[in-house]
Amino acid sequence: MNSKKKNNIVFLFLVIILPIIALFHLFSGEIAIPFSDFYSAFTDFDSENTNQIIVKEFRFPRLMMGIIAGGGLSVTGLLMQTLFNNPLAGPDVLGISSGSSLFVAFTLMSGIPFFNSDFGTIISALIGAFAFGLLILAFSMVVKSHISLLLIGIMLGSFTGAFVSIVQTISNPEDLKMFIMWAMGSLQHVESSQLPIIIAFFIIGIISCFFVVKSLNALVLGENQAFMLGVQVKYIRIILIAITAVLTGLITAFCGPIAFVGLAVPNLVKLLFKTQSHRILLIGCLLIGSIFLLVCDIFVQLLESSIHIPINALTSIIGAPFVILIVLKRLA
Amino acid sequence: MKFYFFIYLAFVIFSCSEKKSKSVVLAKEGVIKYAKNIEIIKNKDLVLVHLKDPETNQIEKRFALIKNNSIAPKGYIKIKTPITSIIALSSTHIGMLAKLNLTSIVSGISSHLYVHDPLILKKYQLGKVVEMGDENSIPVELIIASKSNLLMYSGFGNSFPHEEQLENIGINCLANYDWRETHPLGKAEWIKLFGYLTGTEKEANLYFTKVENEYKKLKKIALKVKSNPSLFSGVLVGDSWYSPAGESFNAVLFKDANCKYIYAKTKGTGSIDKSFEQMLKDNRSTEYWFNPGVISKKELLNIQHKFSNFEAFKNNKVYSYSYSGNEFWERSAIEPHHVLSDLIHILHPEIKNKRNYYFYRQLK
Asked: What is the DSSP annotation of B56-122?
């Protein structure tokens, strides 16, 4: 079987499995809701019916956020891995997610009322992601070695982590509580009214990726080769980091930091599809990333009655062994 | 109860030396009625304090409060009373000392951010009260430098770090498990310990009797009311909603205020956690929402817009003590009758009373 045919079969499988997982996600949860209420929630919503409120206000936004966060973070991971030509790159490894966390920590614990609102948190997360995206970009201009750049990213992560710890110790208990809640990560804080803006930014970010597919394919050969093939490497770097900052900032703002998805999923996609075509890899990341995060969230919900596991912890629990496996496989 | 104390004391007599046991033979009855995590046995010359592990209800530490230079009975740690300087690491400790007009003896606190008492804050500003930090990470030298007689801590599951060394140099460490008491009067009863430690036992006992009588009187009034409104409590933390368990301190208060607490029949003395979906399913039509941890409806909506689905939110029946959180934590343990009074007057408006609330406010 040639690889194109095999890839098509994998795609078909993923396209079928995603709606099934999504449906299962929609039905999971502590409360058993009859199908008729699911149907009515979207066709003939009754604001007095608790089941329909749960479907429309809780489960559907949570499902959409799972798809967006899983797909979005996986795509940003792929972009970073291609840009830095390193399978261990990702928004959380390069310090972009940490930048978001740092800014959210500063603003949430500043005591300024504006920043204690959803809008304030979103703005802070976006500014943090952009600032640290630009910082890593600036370093990338000076530092040629990808390993060194990765190391700088990890250092930035530690640096921001230390600052967050200091801010936590000096902040008042209420603000600290807000930050800890945000830092646990959750898909359930998104509201249906916020979905249109999230979806709009997500679509813009993803469509932008497809405009730079050719450049991404060339970058796999290395920056010099890409330059020889006519890729404006400097501009592409800025575009990729900008897309990463927007998507990471958006997702981190609404869900809190979600670890490992951006690192683990692109590697899994590359293993599955065995291609350098970023058109295929991007679609693969979108599908597998969404499925991965929805499955994690289903586990969170199934375990909810006995133990509450934050989504951020579960993605790490599943993601960390996977990354170790990749490293070991590469060494072998 | 009294009978068991006598049996226990008989055991103590046999385990003590002849000289020491003499003072214990004269022991009177225990002075604790509601608190489950402490026993105080009063005697002519000394007061025996038994701290109980809140999990197992077994005695975990024995203290002998002695006014003179005599030696403590075997197995007891001596605390020479009255103490003149105390490190009080919890808000409730400060509240109880304040009730006895003894905040002047406080030499250390965990953080000024958690203090309401104006005198202690003033002393802190003048550098006469030291901020110690979290009870598990206090630098030992800071404790020694404070020259306190006693360090009172909350004991979140562990003994105090370097406890033995501190005791050797004359600083006793005493865990205060008032926060694990399940009855509001049990929590308040810990004031008796402060009384015996500071030589103000008469005032402490008098105050407690007053609180007890007032609490019982209010409970009786509430039980006479025919209405039985429903309520839920707590707020979403992360993905979990923490509500008081059915046997907890708050659940007892709700019961005594004659209302229908939705999780009154759940087991446990701490809290139960529910998913947000489950909370909405159980409480969408519940009449009152207490203790959401914020002071305005706007703040609640900032945390989660979906809170607006609760009828209590829509009907402006959300009440919080968080307007002055520190004041509540300092005073509520020692003023349970005032907490009960607030609950009764909110839940049963038919009881005519024009008095302002002590702690609670309606969220606007």
From this structure: T--EEEEEEEESSSPPPPTT-EEEESS---EEE-SHHHHHHHHHTT-GGGEEEES-GGG---HHHHH
Question: SS3 for B39?
Answer: strand
CA distances from A251 to A70, A96, A258 (A): 9, 12, 9
User: In terms of DSSP bridges, do strands B288-290 and B46-52 run parallel, antiparallel, or are they unpaired?
Assistant: unpaired
The answer to whether residue A50 neighbours chain B at the CB level (below 8 Å) is yes
Residues B201-242: tens digit of each pLDDT: 999 999 999 999 999 999 999 999 988 999 999 988 877 899
Comparing alpha-carbon positions, the chain A residue that sits nearest to B304 is: A189
Calculate the alpha carbon distances from B31 to A199, B39, B192 in Å.
66, 7, 8
The residue extents of the domains of chain B are: 1-80, 225-362
**Selection from A317, A95, A282 nearest residue A207 by Cα:** A282
Closest CA of chain B from A25, distance in Å? 14
- Three-state SS at B319: strand
Looking at the domain that runs over A3-331, which CATH code has it been given?
1.10.3470.10
Q: Choose from B91, B116, B306, B313 for mutation: most chain A CBs within 10 A.
A: B306
* Domain residue spans of chain A: 3-331
Return the residue in B236, B277, B296 with the most chain A beta carbons within 10 A, the one to mutate for interface testing: B277
CATH topology (fold) of B225-362:
Rossmann fold (3.40.50)
From CA B235, how far away is CA B254, in angstroms rounded? Answer: 17
Q: With cut-offs at 50, 70 and 90, classify the pLDDT of residue B15.
A: very low
Helices A96-108 and A233-255 pack at an angle, to 10 degrees, of 40
**Within an 8 Å CB–CB cutoff, is residue B29 touching chain A?**
no
Instruction: Please state the pTM of the whole predicted model.
Output: 0.79
pLDDT tens digit sequence for A165-205: 887 777 776 677 777 777 778 888 888 888 998 999 999 99
